Every structure is written in structure tokens, then in C-alpha cells.
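Homework help thread (please don't just give me the answer)

Our assignment gives two proteins as sequence + C-alpha cell strings and asks us to describe the second one. The first is just a warm-up. Here they are:
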Amino acid sequence: MMERSKLKAMVQRAQEGIVEKSRVGVVRYPEGGNKGRFVLFHAAMSFCSQKVRATLAQRGSSFDSNDMFILGHRGADGILVPAENYAPDYVRLRLQGKASMGRLVGAYSGISSVSNAGLDPCAVPTLVDLDTGEVVVDSSRICVHIDAAIPGTDRLVPTDPLQLENMQRQLEAVDLTPHPGLLYGFHPEDDRRPAAIKQAMSSVYEEKIEALTALIKANGDDAELVAAYQAKIAKEDGGRKVRYDATFQNELRSTTRSILLKLEGDLRNNEFTWLCAPHVTLADLFWAVSLVRLKYLGLAELWSDLPQIQAYLDRLLELPSIQSEVVASTIASMPPSAYLAA
């Protein structure tokens, strides 16, 4: 826990790394509760950020939005401009949540789960709770934290032990679905990603490593920051090595298919209105984000013979929180996909 004024100062320094001030400190859902409590660093296109924003929207909570650009780019002069989530003060803020998560990421796995892969110190989302003085850095933990902090009867985390256990199992299934690997990797036979995504991913790892190497050189007197950047380099270099690896890319598809088969069975045997309870839970929101992302990538074919999943997705897409924070956000922030229409 950190004293509020000190934490707010760290937040302000982290915000300085966002170039366009129109993306800094924007109050989202101002009619909701908890004004001035939650500060969220996120990205519109980020899979894990969409989970958090959908949770905030579903619970009707206000939050201060800091929308970051999470891919670097080269300026007209050829100089590489790092992603905003690599900025030293943002990384320092995010590292405040490391104590509850343990280790930094040290290798590439194709998944984004902090609990399973370790903390990526240069990623989003990061939630700051100014009331409790906490920095929360894992999307699943962020969503549970938000739900527990907001009073009301529309809780997204069940109190019934069996429903809670089932929800936690579903959250883990989404966490273990290799979304980053599917977005960044080149499938050898059936790559359906938009052309602009393929072009960006052909050099993305090299540019990330170049930017991180320069940041290490510029911040050599800060041992903790250097260690964070080195951990990030280890992860990105691992991704670079398997980006075109046919065996690895086929394994990502196979893993995803297995997870979807389990979901189909759970839906078929489900006794509740929603997946884990008579009401919407975090499991439903997380699966909505997962299925929309897979659909965007042209991978809805992975459940083309699984009718329960398609019917479930149709219901999820009726939720206003999913419409705004997942579907509309994806369409607005990512290259057009023939598989995901407005």
C-alpha cells in the first residue's frame, strides 16, 4: 500500500509518457460511482485491457482512462519511437504491483497471463486504486479487485462456492488461451489476419528489442528498471524465434481448439442462465473478449462445429459492456477484419 499523494505523483509522472494529452485522464462513465478512485492505464486494442474495461462498464464504475499506444513506430527521420508503455515512469509505476505477483516474465509462452507467465513490466493494463493505495497489474486480479470494491447486488464474482470455483476455472481457461501468440505469429498454411497486422508483426519484435536496448542504455543507473527491460527483452526475443515456427504455430491452434472443446462441453451441461451462475459473471465477460478476438483473427472456424459456443457468443454480444468495450473498441483501434463487422 502506498500513501495517496505519493501514488498520485507516480501516476502523474507515468501520464507524461502519453504523447497526446487528449488520451490522458479522461473520465469514462462519469455518471457511474467511484469517481476519482480508479486510474486505468490501458490500450484500446489490448486483449487484457478489454477485459478490465468490460468489467468496469458492466459494474457501472467511473474511471480515469489513460489510453496508451502499445506499438512503437518510426518517425519520418527513421528514428524509432518506443511504445508508450515502455516509458520509464510507467514501468516504475507498474513495478509497484510486482510484490503481489512474484517473478518477472523471463521467456515467451504465447499467453498473457501474469499468474502463469510472470509479470511483463512493460504491458497494460495497470490499475491504480487511489482509495486503497494499491497498484494491481494482472487483468484477472484487477477485475476481481474492481468487483469487490464496488457495492451492489450485481456482483460479477459469485458467492456460492461451487459457482465461484467454476468461474475461476473459466478465467484460467481464457488466461491460458494463447491470444498473443495467435495475434503475433505467422501460421504456415492458414494465416487469416488482416494484411496490416501481418506487416506490423513482420518487424515488431526487432523494433521492440531495439527500443528496449536503447532504454537500458539511457537508464543504466536504475538497476530495477534495467532488470525490467532485460526481462522484457527475454520475452520478446523468445517470441521472435517462434514467430514463423510452423510447429509452434500449429500447437497454438491445437491448444485453442482443446480449450474451446472444453467450453462447448461446459455450455452443453450448464444448468444456469449464464455460464457459471444465474447472472453474468466475470467468466462471461472474459469469454466474450476471447471469442471476439478469435473471430477478428478469422479463427471462428475453430468452433464452426460447436453450436453451443456460437449461441453463447450471440448472447454475449447483446451485452452493452461487450458492444462498447470489446467489439466497438476492436473495430476502432485495429485494422479492419473481414471476419468482424460493426
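The one we have to describe:
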Amino acid sequence: MPRETSPGAPPSDGAHRPELKTSEKPSERDRSVDNGAVVRARWAITAVFFVNGLLMASYIVRIPSLKETLGLTSSQLGVVLTFFGVSALLSMQFVGRLVARFGSACLIRLTLGLLPIALSGVGLAQDAVQLSAALIVMGGVHGTLDVAMNSHAVSVEQIRRRPIMNGCHAAWSISAVLGSLLGATVIRSGVSPTAHLLWVGGLLLAVGLTATRWLLPAVQDRETTPSDGPMTSRTGRHGGWSRPVLLLGAMGLALMICEAAVTSWSGVFLHDSRGATLSAAALGYTAFTVCQSLGRLVGDRLTQRVGSRNLFRANGSITVLGLVTVVVGPSQTVSTVGFGVMGIGTSLLVPLIFSAAGHAGGQGAGAAAFVSRVTTFTYAGILTGPALVGWFAQVFELTWTFAGIIPLMIAVVLGAGAMPAPVPVLGGRRADP
């Protein structure tokens, strides 16, 4: 439980929060939003994450179909897909300025309206050049939306004085699974990529724009005053590249490399190293994804109960335990269980990092700038992780490559001190009914 501290000193991380003192009273921004509007904004931003997950899953599940339909070689497809990631990374660098000018809610409405259209453009592509152009647009829009929706979630957390980031990421994970299952069903039914992506894009365009009506007003997420605390650093001349951002970014990079090892190589590991059949080998990724989604559903309550630092350490340690189980497991069953344990462990780590980055940046544009920098690191991990694991596996074998990730995750656990103290509960009570 936090003790009395001198003015300006950061609260300690703990399971209980005292009532706000006079110096801790909510800002004019916080008081200007009524409780009902905050609750609606909480569910609106969760819906944005859900729609984004469906859109991205619909695209990903159709990549093999696009390769076949357009007659692309594996090398051509690899180059084309790279355009998406590079475009997303570049677009992220400008989101802080855009939020400062227009607010994250406005940016979300614009990009969530454009993303389904860009997805439809992917479905309409007739050759590699058109597909590349569509993916460049889609990557830029998605990168902007990714940062804007995470920074808006931070704004809701700041006003609401309760964590919501894990719930938002849980919505994304669940929708990604649903989108993949729906895509598999559509593919079995013989529906073309063009028809599939056009229908999904049109439906989610309507759903997404409807949900964004209840986001926070633009004036609420354009403030740039950084919050008090040990991690606070003004974005100013550094453009958000501060020491806390670099630390959180490095942790996010390591986590994405770890997740990339599971998503891209868990099946290969179970098949080649544990003798699993091809169908059984797919269970490693399934166990990881299901457990990760379940973990995120309870993440916000756990963050409130035990604090972000303690929770980060605990989940990081669970991830290490899962990795050790994967590596030393004598059978495919034990290793599959290890991947599930890894899913539980990693479920809360990335959302906690995004939330920490946003709170370190302050409000509005400051939060968006910090989130955009950290997202740059995580995307770099997503893009380079599969290749890095493959290169090391070629030299050291896949089992030793997974073992090499263990010290990387231990370093992430040791970085838990970068997590901020918990957001105090407004007036000693819940901020919503």
C-alpha cells in the first residue's frame, strides 16, 4: 500500500490506492468528461481494437490465396509483404504530431474508415505492382491507427483512473482468432479473395465508424502536459526518443522476437524436434494464442490488484518458465503445454509496455509520441524476429535457438522497474459504475 510521499514524489506500486490528496485531484480535462461518456469511450476504443483485429486477420488468412491467384513466387511475395511493414513503421513516426493537431479520436475515425477501403484494394489487386501499392497504403494506414488507438486507450486510462489496455488487446486477440476461423470457412467455401475482402471491408467500415462515435472528444486527448513521475520526459527536441522510451522499446523488441519465435516456428519445432505430426504441431501456436487471449481478459483487474510492476515481473517469470518447459520438455505434449504457459506469460507484457509508454509521455500528443516510438521497436521485432530465429536455427538448431531466448526474457523481467506506479482510483472509488 503506498505510503505518504512528498509532493511530486511518485506513488509506490502496490495493490491498494489511497484517496486522492488535494495535489492529486483530477485535472480540468478529467472533470470535463462525465462518467457515462468515459464508460462509453472505454467500450468504443475496445471495439476499435476488435475491428482492427478482424481486418488484419482477414488479410493475413488470405495471403496464400493472393499468392496463388496472382501467380507470385515465394521471393516475390516476400518482397511485396515487406512493403506493408516498412510503410507502417514510417507512418508511426508522424502520429504524435497528428494527434497534437487533430486529436487521436479524429485520427482513429479517419484511419478506421480508410483501412477497410485499403483492404478492399488488396482484394482487387490484379498483379504484384497493384498489390504492392495497396499494401503500402494499407501499411501506412494501419501503422497510424495502431499508435492512435493505443494512445487513445491511454487517454481513457488517465481520465478513468483505471487500466483498460489489457482488455483492448484481448479484444484484438479474440477478433484475430475469429477472423482467422471465418477466413478458413470462407476459403473452404470457395469464395475468392476479392469477394471475401470486399465484403469484410464493407461490413467493418460500417461497424467501425459507428463505434467511433463514442470516443473521447478531440479536446480531451490533445493536451500535451506530461504527467508527474520518475519516467516523465518531454518529447520536445528529442522527438520522444528518451531513455524510458528506449528501455521500453528494447523490452518490446525482445518480447516480439520471443512471440515471433512461437508464431512462426513453434510448429516446426514440435514437428522436427519433438516428432509431432503436422496436425499436432499446429497445437503449439493454438495453445499459445488461446492462453494469451484468456490472460488478457483478466489483465486489467490484475493490474489494479497487484500493480503493473509486480504483474510484469510475474508474467515475465511465467514466460521464462514456459520457455524452459518448451526446451527441456521430453515430449510434444509437454512442449505444447510450455507454449501455452508462454501464452499466459506474454499475454499482459506488451499491453503493459504500451500503457507505460503512454503514461510516461503525458497526455494527448505526448502519449502518442511515446507510444509511436515504442511501437516502432515492437514492429521491428515482428518483422525481423522470424528471420532471426531462422538464421540462428540454421547454425545452432531450433532447440538451442529457443534456449537462447531465455536470457533475453530474463533481461525483460529485470526491466520491470520501468513500469509506472498504478494509476490512482479517483476519490478512492471506481471511476465507473
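TA reply:
I won't write it for you, but here's a hint about the kind of observation we're looking for: The first helix runs from residue 28 to 31.
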